[in-house]
Amino acid sequence: MTETAPVKTRKKMGKKASDRLWFWLFLMPALIPFLLMVITPFGMGIYYSFTNWTGGLNPTEWVGIENYRGLLTDYRFVYSFLTTGIYAALNVLFINAVAFGLALLVTRKLKLTNLYRASFFIPNLIGGLIIGYLWRFIYTLVLTRGLNLFDSSPLIGDNALIALIVVVTWQYAGYIMMIYIAALQNVPEDLIEASRIDGANAWQRLRNITLPLIAQAFTVSLFLTLVTAFKQFDTVYSLTQGGPPQLSPPWLMNLVGMTNARTVESTELVANVIYNRAFSFNQFAEGQAMAVTFFVILAIFSIGQVYFNKKREVEL
Does 279 reside within a domain? Predict the structure, then answer.
């Protein structure tokens, strides 16, 4: 006898309910820690940013948007945000340019190609703190005092930000290179061969065939490097400690409505300012307000970058 329609419907509903139950059971081991370690602290952080919390167990008082209002006149926070923007733009440009160049190099039919790939990727396996101390030794002792390539330490003055970008590019370019390698290896070889037969040179093949076909790799790589650049903390902490200090420029004082020049740190990025404000000065509520503001701005930049890159993929 064939089953009636209501019986089949009940079985399908039962199977869907069972599948849904198994779905949530398998998801729980990852979902519960995520809720406890990420979502809950994030929500509590938003609440504390509207209080006068000092990090202790004492009761906090609601102060509203005072912590956020103070950010507009906080010269160190404003300066660090502008520095972070410049650093992020240069960092994204250098890392992706170097990574794409390395990917083009190691995807050619060269001897020891796997060795080259591993060598370029290895710096990414080293922690940011260790890399900072390593390159601090290279800059100050090897290049300056040993080889006398600089009159003074390159970590002094305007060179500090460039020195930081060089270190982070060396560390992260190998990781982004692997993304470009995967994309380049998926470019159909018959298209490249057909373009050669038609007389296209290397630049024309790269511009008209390779770049459009790996547009998705650029979207992913730009997103990763942008977010990483904005969140940079450990390498800065060990390489420059946010320094060297310098007098704030006049335009900064005019921007925040102050007349007297103050001391700012030339490589102190937003993440470092947040850390120092919370853990060095015990102003946890203000530090949390900075962190929330930073999260919102970073989310806007990241979503905007992905949106425009996706539109560019369609155009290509």
Answer: yes
